[in-house]
Write a structure and sequence with these properties.
- Helix content is 80%, strand content 0%.
- The protein has 11 helices and no strands.
- α4 (85-105) runs antiparallel to α5 (109-125).
- The longest helix is centred in the N-terminal third of the chain and has 48 residues, at 33-80.
- The relative contact order is 0.05.
Length: 230
């Protein structure tokens, strides 16, 4: 296809599109200079505020994590205080207050959820099961959902509410594969035993064994299967 030639004389007479557009932009900027300056300042303030806000939250999170480390040490000390119930409870209470402090400083995301879980663990260790249940219930929509369900199961089981314990253990046992699944299956089996539903308990122990025959709990599970079979 032939290319249509345009004479240099004609090109010089016609306005250059780039130059014309640039001229219009410059004219617009001149006419709206004050308004554009205001918008620019607003944008800069918003960006600066966002950066400062992010930096502040990161600082808060770091501070909360440092407090968490102190609380963890207290919790481990309490955990190792076997045989002295009063001293053990006193140390768990100290850990509890530190975890609460960390949660107050920063209660968002994974950091906040860890504090919340350990607040529940501290209440559980002090046999304050109703308080522990409230704490664990705050973690059901976070990254530790399966751990929260399992912890709720243990708390209800410790209270003697085997029906509620069963309900929570089953959330892990019947869901997608997760790190707490085997332990939750054993929780389900124990609850069935406590509720005098031995056939279902036997079925659950067998299911746990079939899922992981090389489990460290395999010997115990085989013993339970034999016991329930009679």
């Amino acid at each position: 296809m032939a290319i249509k030639k345009v004479s240099r004389k004609k090109l010089l007479k016609e306005p250059d599109e780039f130059i014309t557009t640039t001229g219009r932009v410059i004219q617009y900027l001149r006419e709206n200079q004050r308004q554009l300056t205001i918008y620019g300042v607003i944008a800069a303030v918003v960006i600066a505020a966002g950066f400062l806000g992010y930096s502040y939250f990161r600082w808060q999170e770091g501070k909360a994590e440092a407090i968490q480390q102190q609380a963890m040490q207290m919790y481990q000390e309490a955990y190792s205080q076997t045989g002295n119930l009063e001293k053990e409870k006193e140390n768990y209470k100290k850990a509890l207050e530190k975890f609460k402090e960390a949660l107050t400083v920063y209660g968002r995301g994974t950091t906040g959820q860890i504090s919340q879980l350990y607040i529940g663990n501290s209440h559980y260790a002090m046999r304050e099961y109703d308080a522990a249940i409230q704490d664990y219930s705050q973690c059901l929509d976070g990254p530790f959902r399966t751990l929260a369900f399992q912890s709720l199961g243990y708390a209800y089981e410790a209270k003697g509410d085997y029906a509620k314990a069963l309900e929570n253990f089953q959330k892990n046992a019947e869901g997608d594969p997760n790190p707490e699944q085997e332990e939750s299956l054993l929780g389900v089996a124990r609850c069935y035993e406590a509720l005098k539903q031995n056939p279902k308990a036997l079925e659950t122990y067998q299911k746990a064994l079939n899922k992981n025959p090389k489990s460290k709990m395999a010997e115990f599970i085989q013993w339970k299967v034999s016991e329930l079979k009679g």
